[in-house]
Amino acid sequence: MNFSPPADTPEGRFGPNAILQGLHTQGRVVIALMLREMRLRSVHSRLSYLLALLEPILQLAMMMGIFSIIGRRPDFGTSLLLFLGTGILPFFLFTHVSGRTTSAIRASGLVRALAPIQPLDIMVARALLETATLLVVAVLLFTVIYATGIPEALPIRPMLAIEGFAATALLAIGVGLINGVIGAFFRLWAVIYGVLSRSLIFLSGVFFVPDFMPPQIRYWLSWNPLLHGLEWFRSGFYLTYPTLTLDKTYLIGFGLVALLIGLALERVFRARLV
Predict the structure, then answer these.
(1) Under DSSP, is residue 206 helix (H, G, I), strand (E, B) or coil?
(2) How far is 204 from 229, CA to CA, in rounded Å?
């Protein structure tokens, strides 16, 4: 006998089976949108997609060239290449995911008019695709660093590196959802946010160790949630890396609040976004 409540009753509409079915359907939609996005990028230009994968490595190579010329030494550890690499990767994770989600709805075309697809699906698909891309970039980047003769490129505490990556991705996706809604109504927001987010490279510990800064400067820097993601990720590569400034609760809390705000904005403006 089937004791499941009828589908047209509140218990049927909001029961465990209905929720699981809804999540399964939405998951299939998001995966389909991710595959569509990948196909569109490869059709337009395979070279540009490859350059997007190599961008952090090219950026790191440029920084290494500049710092080598001026005789810059790493603020921690013996390898400037590894120190900069562990900073540039979380920074790119945040800026790419949160920035490219900004134009997700505008770039979706007529797809968002299809009945099963909601604006949230489009933004989540873009954010998850960018996160997966940066995960591939991370493996590629540290493999290259390891190949240059730096064994420390393999995380000494891999779980810390994974947790830092995941927490930074949570922050990026939350901010990205907010940007996606704003960007759907304000076309120039993508440019404005791009400039603002890129400036965070000087405030997030990419080039320095926050704990080595004067207390007053360290206090103001600690309000930047990305700095905590970077510190968390970097601590996975150095056994004695100083983490006095690191506040994991603040980073996760900031990411969750941003995620909830993004979800609320999408729900409020869903009809206009469609």
Answers:
(1) coil
(2) 9
CA 123 to CA 32: how far, in whole Å? 13
Separation of first and last alpha carbons in the chain: 42
CA nearest to 173, candidates 88, 266, 247, 85: 266
Amino acid 108: pLDDT: 62
Per residue in 105-137, pLDDT (tens digit) is 766 655 555 556 777 878 888 888 889 889 988
| Rounded Cα–Cα distance for residues 190 and 184 (Å) | 10
What are 65-75's pLDDT values in tens digits?
A: 888 788 778 78
For residues 183 and 189, give the distance between their C-alpha atoms in angstroms, rounded to a whole number: 6
List, as one string, the DSSP characters of 35-80.
HHHHHHHHHH-HHHHHHHHHHHHHHHHHHHHHHHHHT---SSSS-H
Cα–Cα distance, 181 to 273 (Å, whole number): 8
Residue ranges of the chain with pLDDT lower than 50?
Answer: 1-4
